[in-house]
Amino acid sequence: MRINPVNTRIYPGHHISKSKVQQQPSSKTTNTSHINMPAYYYPVNFKGVPMSIGEIIKQIPLEDRLASLFQNFKLGDLILIGKNLGESAKKMYQSSGVVKNAIKRGFFIADDELNGNLGFIKNMQGDTEVVNLNDTNITLISDNKTYSMKPEESFYVINDDIIDVNGQLLKIKEKSKTDLSMFRKNFARAFDFHKEVEPQIEKINKKTLSSLMQKTHKTSTPITFAQVGGMHELKDSLKKDIIYPLQYPDAYEGVELNHGFILYGEPGTGKTLIARALANEADANFISLNGLDLESKWVGESEANWRQLFEDAKTNQPTIIFLDEFDAVARSRSSYDEYGNKVVNQILTLMTDIDNEGDNVFVIGATNNYKSLDKAILRSGRFGKHYEVPVPDMDGLREAFKIHTSKKPLDENIDINGILKKLHQYKGTGADIRHIVNEAHTNGFIRAGIFNKMENKTYSTQDKKNFKITQEDFDKALADFLKDKKTSRPIGFNQA
Q: Which contiguous run of DSSP H or E holds residue 346?
């Protein structure tokens, strides 16, 4: 289990006795100009012959060899240190629970001086962690503070930290004393697992995507623009932006289409509904994803999953990708959110590729928090068109009411105008109307005793034939709804 020993990852430099830190061996200089080796001092043997590369490598401090690997250390890499590879790998296997991502590359540094085993991983936040692969506790010294690490535990480490393994000290360095890149193969065994790992990652990614994707255009009763109340200007714009280019491609030859759209507005105004209707009107594949689901499920292999999502959309084009709660993954980048920044950068790249290649893939991001979106997301060539989905006016509410009551038995004496005026006063939406109509229907069943008949097994189809929703049923449904709206300011409210 990984444990964070400190709240901050930025430590000031600390001081430690020089007698405890590994020192560079010293000897008289030997002419080694014929060997391009690191700038350390190398002794010669009694015959005057320079030492072998293997012997010279052993003279390079472990901290420098480790630092050389850190220079190209990334997520998916694992570094093991110990006397024996098999033993170190076995210990790492026992501690595998601390690794939260697939291991794609491995490195082993053999060191006879270190009386134990250590593992190093790069976590999903971009930090380097050390894993205690010993049967006893080891100590991490950071900023003059000491932290005890139990077996199979991992801690964050940064530059100048000291790891005490049974009295032997290893200093963490971001950079080796001299460039050892040409000689890494001489002191670190490398193992590449990409071919074995990536197919498994792809398999897992596709399983995740399958659980998130909803292809609604094949449903038996598809939603169309006719089932979306109001929004006439928005529906007209989407026809010109997406539907007509798909239906009449020759008419748009030479026209650079926009492939990214933002729908923003209050919750319940119908952003998801109009996206579903759009996909059906365009006869396009429809992929609906929630930004919060993406953020929680795709951490670690997020960029690969986004690439896979867009690749699937291209394979099945024409495709409309709908990203609800888009602000969860496309919020403004900051220096404190490395994961979020990578996701935004990946989305920008993918949108640019679609724009450059002219694929019939259209991406619609929906948000209730437009101002939080990253500025680069909003520019032309990415998500260049932004449409507000406003709270409906009286005409829009009337259309929504008509749609949601089209298959409901209504009493002819219901005051529809009165119901809609109250809803408009409290900024009611199409989703609110749907809720109230369904609640009125339930109230009617209670009033008519239909639920009681169902409970007593005496219900018959004749009971439904004689049933109608009344004004009383709507009044109760509206009253219950407005209880939750009392804290909201109705239209026309002026603060004194």
A: helix 338-357
Q: Are residues 312 and 284 in the same domain?
A: yes
Domain count, the chain: 3
Per-residue model confidence (pLDDT) at position 23 = 39
Would you state the torsion angle of the CA atoms of residues 303, 309, 310, 315, taken in this order, to the nearest 10 degrees? 140
Q: Are residues 376 and 441 in the same domain?
A: no
Position of tokens 């919750």?
Answer: 267
Which candidate, 127, 71, 129, 59, places its Cα nearest to that of 98? 129
Rounded-to-integer distance, Cα 160 and Cα 237, Å: 59
Cβ atoms within 10 Å of 146's Cβ, excluding its own:
11
Q: Is residue 341 part of a domain?
A: yes
Instruction: Answer whether residue 131 is part of any domain.
Output: yes
Q: What is the pLDDT of residues 44-53, one digit of tens each?
A: 444 445 556 6
- Give the ranges where 221-337 is alpha helix by DSSP (H): 232-238, 244-247, 271-282, 291-297, 302-315
Place of tokens 């609110």: 432
CATH number at residue 429: 1.10.8.60
The CA–CA distances, whole Å, from 231 to 52, 56, 387 equal 79, 76, 11
Q: What is the pLDDT of residues 431-471, one digit of tens each?
A: 888 899 999 999 999 999 989 989 999 998 888 888 999 99
Q: Coil, strand or helix: which one is 6?
A: coil
User: Maximum distance among all alpha carbons in the chain?
Assistant: 114
Domain assignment of residue 462, given as a range: 394-483
Task: Determine contact, residues 461/415, Cβ cutoff 8 Å.
Answer: no
195: which 2 tokens? 């071919």
Q: Are residues 315 and 401 in the same domain?
A: no
Do 73 and 123 reside in the same domain of the chain?
yes
Give tens-digit pLDDT for 73-112.
988 899 999 999 999 999 999 998 888 888 999 999 998 8
| Angle ∠(17,18,21) on CA atoms, nearest 5 | 100
Token code pair at residue 151 = 């077996």
Choose between 203 and 267: higher pLDDT. Answer: 267
**Residue-wise burial string across 415-437, b where 16 or more C-beta atoms lie within 10 A, e elsewhere:** eeeebbebbbebbbbbbbbbbbb
- Report the helix count and the strand count for the chain, using DSSP H and E: 18, 15
Beta strands in 111-196 (DSSP E): 118-122, 128-132, 138-142, 145-149, 154-157, 162-165, 168-171, 189-192
Same domain, 423 and 378: no
One domain for residues 376 and 405: no
Q: Is 264 within a domain? A: yes
Residues 80 and 166 in one domain: yes
Quick one: 414 and 445 in the same domain? yes
Burial of 217-256, coded b for 16+ CB within 10 Å and e otherwise, reads: beeeebbebebbbbbeebbeebbebbbebbeeeeeeeeee
